[in-house]
Amino acid sequence: MKKNEKNNKKIMIIGLAAIAIGAAGFLGYTTFQARTAKKTGEETITAFTKALKNQNYDQLSNYITIDAKTQKNYSKKAVNEKYQAVFTGIGANNVKISDIKIKGDDFSYELSFSTGLGSLKNNYSGTFSDQNKKINWKPDLIFPTMSGKDTVSYQNDPAVRGEILDRNDAPIAANGTVYRLGVTPVKLGSGSGKNTAIEEIATYTGLTTDEINTALDQGWVEDDSFVPLATVNSLPEDLPEELDYQEATGRNYPLGEAAAQLTGYVGKATAEDIEKNNALVSGSVIGRAGLELSYDKQLRGTDGGTLVINDKNGDQKKVLQKVNKKDGKNIKLTIDSQAQQVAYQSLGGQPGSSVAMAPKSGELLVLASSPSFDPNLMTNGISQTDYDAYNNDANLPFSNRFSTGYAPGSTFKTITASIGLDAGTLNPSEEIAIDGLKWQGDSTWGGYQITRVSEVSPVDLETALVYSDNIYMAQQTLKMGSKTFLAGLDKFIFGEKLDLPISMNPAQISNDGTFSSDILLADTGYGQGQLLLNPIQQITTYSVLPNKGTLVYPKLLASKETKTKKAAIKESSATTVTTDMQAVVTDPNGTAYILNSLGLPIAAKTGTAEIKTEQDTKGQENSFLYAFDTSNQAYSVLNFLENAQDGDSAVGRSGDLLTYLSENYQ
């Protein structure tokens, strides 16, 4: 090959290589640009939709440009305001973006969010400008198919919240007219006159002047705006001249404090509630406590309505959502409203509770806790002053005492006696000599002794129940032994979760379900030790007595079937204990003799559980009474007073309720 030919060939190869390198470089640069454009576009779309999600509508204009044609109808500020009006109006929340696709300066993505009518999902597409840093905005980025001066119409058809009714269909939580008390700023005047008017309104409503001024300082308030301050269930006659009102539909609780822990109350859904539940929107009313919370879904129902795009003439262009409302369902309880009121009033504001049951069916007639709070205040918007008064009350009005576990005291002797009778270790007619007011099993008990109130001897079962003798019952429990006693207790409800819409811990025999010592075994036999049952669990456990050995579980919903546990104790044992409980009422020495004056056919057992840190000292005394109708077994009552004071007791506060039940339940 000639030298020139070789040089030409070499030049050609070098040229081709240069071209290849250049092409590769161009391709690499193009690929880099594409990747950069894609990444930038994704960041732009993500930032835009994040502003929507976080409701930062004033930031949307940072990510858009608007062409001349679109600017005829929308400025950047108008876009921000449009999104805010639409998304706020439809209650948009839980905004989520997915499936972002970028090709050059074209984009598409899927946006889903919840409205007051449910979930809505749409596919969006458009173009970028400024190297994919800006979205070329058009109205179809609000909703696809929108254009020009189209508007969005959202009409909500709220579901009617179901009511909570008692056994006789009387409302316990009802829908009705409420009155929003408020002010119109222009009527308040100015200067010292305004300050005087605000002070008068504060005194009248229970609000502070700071709370009223804060309400008046809200950004949306104009001189002629109605500024709501408080909501009440009835309109007072002596409204101050400066105070206006508006009628509205709201929730009210006719029994007020008498059933507050049972019914609970409702309130407006918070942003956190809405985040957790797609079915909620701004303005949704939800259960906050009690049955309103437990049955919120059934009571609340499902809102209906329509979400529509209209053209500039107001004609319907496209229906985005249409949902028919489903009103909430009523909840019918077994509660007797009148009995509930009688029971609550009988507690007289003292810490305690009252539970009544129809023992054959398990229907709960009364669930009252004292002291209490007004659920109407909680629902309508309680002032800080009123809330602080409740929250700082040493007697804890927000506590639910009918679902709180306590040592049941001597009422539990009826169960211990029944187990001993079943096992054959307790002979009801056997008289046992007991000397003095103190006793201990043996020297291994150290300084610990069991005490009784009355020095009586000899003692048989009836005497032990009439006088409520701790020593007799402790001796009988030790005689039957831990194995037999535990086997008997296992036939009841210990460790079980009751089928009730009320939060509570299961009843417990002891902290670990066993007896670690004879002292604990003996103490449990007369209702103390580590034994814990709440008043509902107590009245359920004791249902074996009026039902002749069958345990009947409690129920609160009228529609529930009655559930039973057969032969928790023998019928003969239930009969024996019931006869002795009648003597507790009729014998002048009986601890429930005060009830004899009622002239009712009842059996009863009182109980005192003492809480103290050191023996031979006086501690807090919780007082209990269990009583039931022996004629028809139509009703039973478990009354409880926490830290009962001298001269006060659960039995002393039970007369009105027992009388009411005897007159209305046969």
UniProtKB/TrEMBL annotation:
<dbReference type="Pfam" id="PF00905">
    <property type="entry name" value="Transpeptidase"/>
</dbReference>
<comment type="similarity">
    <text>Belongs to the transpeptidase family.</text>
</comment>
<dbReference type="InterPro" id="IPR007887">
    <property type="entry name" value="MecA_N"/>
</dbReference>
<keyword id="KW-1133">Transmembrane helix</keyword>
<feature type="transmembrane region" description="Helical">
    <location>
        <begin position="12"/>
        <end position="32"/>
    </location>
</feature>
<dbReference type="InterPro" id="IPR005311">
    <property type="entry name" value="PBP_dimer"/>
</dbReference>
<dbReference type="Pfam" id="PF05223">
    <property type="entry name" value="MecA_N"/>
</dbReference>
<protein>
    <submittedName>
        <fullName>Penicillin-binding transpeptidase domain-containing protein</fullName>
    </submittedName>
</protein>
<dbReference type="Pfam" id="PF03717">
    <property type="entry name" value="PBP_dimer"/>
</dbReference>
<dbReference type="InterPro" id="IPR050515">
    <property type="entry name" value="Beta-lactam/transpept"/>
</dbReference>
<feature type="domain" description="Penicillin-binding protein dimerisation">
    <location>
        <begin position="157"/>
        <end position="319"/>
    </location>
</feature>
<feature type="domain" description="Penicillin-binding protein transpeptidase">
    <location>
        <begin position="352"/>
        <end position="648"/>
    </location>
</feature>
<keyword id="KW-0472">Membrane</keyword>
<dbReference type="InterPro" id="IPR001460">
    <property type="entry name" value="PCN-bd_Tpept"/>
</dbReference>
<keyword id="KW-0812">Transmembrane</keyword>
<feature type="domain" description="NTF2-like N-terminal transpeptidase">
    <location>
        <begin position="42"/>
        <end position="149"/>
    </location>
</feature>
